[in-house]
Amino acid sequence: MVFSSSLFLFLFLPIVLLIYYLLKLEYRNIFLLVVSLLFYAWGEPKFVIVIIASIIINYVFGIIVHLCSENKVSCLIRRTILIVGIISNCGLLFYFKYYDFFLSSINSITGLNLTLANVILPIGISFFTFQGLSYVIDVYQGKIKVQKNLYKLALYMAFFPQLIAGPIVRYVDIHTQIDERVSTIDGFASGIRRFVIGLGKKVIIANTLGAVADSIFGLPAEQNSMAIAWVGAICYTFQIYFDFSGYSDMAIGLARMFGFNFKENFDYPYISKTVTEFWRRWHISLSRWFRDYLYIPLGGNRRGNVYVNLLIVFIVTGLWHGAAWNFIIWGLWHGLFLILERVLKLKKVRIRVPKIIIWSYTSLVVIIGWVLFRSPDLTYARDYIGIMFGLNDPYNVGFTVWYYLNPMIVTMLVIACICSIPIIKYIKGNVGSYEEHSGFSLFLQNAYVLIILIISIMFMATSTYNPFIYFRF
């Protein structure tokens, strides 16, 4: 079940909200846990066992680590228990996500013919695994108190708004909200607005441009002209942003409806002037997770290790997104530019370049990276990028670029460009905003949200194309 489906919008969500607010406070968490597991089971009921196993693993290791700390067990034993807990989490993730990739890589390198297990990937396993890991590590480091109530920890890991595609919510950020959260009319209304904005991003922009990107990337690379290849790359660049940020907006909005406050996950990444800045703005919850739980433990910014640490982090970032070599190369691609920018900064290389040139450099790096990300394999990515830059000659090109750039797509590209920049934030910061709850302010807030909702429903009713890119992660 996806947030942008009629089943979710007009049946699941209204019923859940109605029952939730009719229940007494002490029963609401249990109810949310039950409906979250039902939500997850909608696609593949058997995989509920996987998330329950993950919950139990982290609950048990959290308790053990806590008891060891209370009883002043030696650091070596505590650290060993933590490592076993981390391996248990990663082992579950490895089997379902990387086992077949590992075997196929061995086959390719050695010439062996090991039989693949054809393991089906549970939806959102990377997200709830990382949430569980952060919980156990934070208990070990004393940042949070252990959660002795199993169903409350289960709610943290299985809460349906962020369960299958993030953002990665840390226990340290919401543990007090599990027991003590306040639901208000303003918060609920804010959640609805945020959800509708995310729905519009997904259904109106991402789906429309995604259909074009899929058509172009669905052809052999050589059957696209240079112009068509660039259209495909740009459409996918916007698709993945509005798809994922739209989902994050919907997740944040849903959480607000139930009284939870999640941190932001995107901050207009396509206005970035460096690749380093891009990663401060893109998928913020993942970037911070790797910074705190991998980069810093590896040594962080200590001189001599920093470049190796960055490469390790971005290799793992690539692997986190998918079990394929093109994801690893995508991670390395970004990691290398981060290292380059850090070297230039440390050497205090200051070159006065117009901002538009710096922004263009960053955009080019990101777009090429998305081609690596979108391609089915490295060979296709190499050929596609070759077409984009005129290094390969296309043949059997069946369409002109105007077949794809019809008025609807051109309009949507313009809208995507406008929505990728912080216009509203700029207006509020430089012009000011209306007084809260003034009549005109309320009218504007509700009018544009209602328009987006109506248009989104129209798009949903007339299209069967509705993928969520980050579900497979």
Automatic annotation (TrEMBL):
<keyword id="KW-1003">Cell membrane</keyword>
<feature type="transmembrane region" description="Helical">
    <location>
        <begin position="227"/>
        <end position="247"/>
    </location>
</feature>
<protein>
    <submittedName>
        <fullName>Alginate O-acetyltransferase complex protein AlgI</fullName>
    </submittedName>
</protein>
<feature type="transmembrane region" description="Helical">
    <location>
        <begin position="27"/>
        <end position="43"/>
    </location>
</feature>
<dbReference type="InterPro" id="IPR024194">
    <property type="entry name" value="Ac/AlaTfrase_AlgI/DltB"/>
</dbReference>
<keyword id="KW-0808">Transferase</keyword>
<feature type="transmembrane region" description="Helical">
    <location>
        <begin position="6"/>
        <end position="22"/>
    </location>
</feature>
<keyword id="KW-1133">Transmembrane helix</keyword>
<keyword id="KW-0472">Membrane</keyword>
<feature type="transmembrane region" description="Helical">
    <location>
        <begin position="49"/>
        <end position="68"/>
    </location>
</feature>
<keyword id="KW-0812">Transmembrane</keyword>
<feature type="transmembrane region" description="Helical">
    <location>
        <begin position="401"/>
        <end position="427"/>
    </location>
</feature>
<dbReference type="InterPro" id="IPR051085">
    <property type="entry name" value="MB_O-acyltransferase"/>
</dbReference>
<feature type="transmembrane region" description="Helical">
    <location>
        <begin position="356"/>
        <end position="373"/>
    </location>
</feature>
<comment type="similarity">
    <text>Belongs to the membrane-bound acyltransferase family.</text>
</comment>
<dbReference type="Pfam" id="PF03062">
    <property type="entry name" value="MBOAT"/>
</dbReference>
<feature type="transmembrane region" description="Helical">
    <location>
        <begin position="448"/>
        <end position="471"/>
    </location>
</feature>
<dbReference type="InterPro" id="IPR028362">
    <property type="entry name" value="AlgI"/>
</dbReference>
<feature type="transmembrane region" description="Helical">
    <location>
        <begin position="153"/>
        <end position="172"/>
    </location>
</feature>
<feature type="transmembrane region" description="Helical">
    <location>
        <begin position="80"/>
        <end position="99"/>
    </location>
</feature>
<feature type="transmembrane region" description="Helical">
    <location>
        <begin position="119"/>
        <end position="141"/>
    </location>
</feature>
<feature type="transmembrane region" description="Helical">
    <location>
        <begin position="304"/>
        <end position="321"/>
    </location>
</feature>
<dbReference type="InterPro" id="IPR004299">
    <property type="entry name" value="MBOAT_fam"/>
</dbReference>
<keyword id="KW-0012">Acyltransferase</keyword>
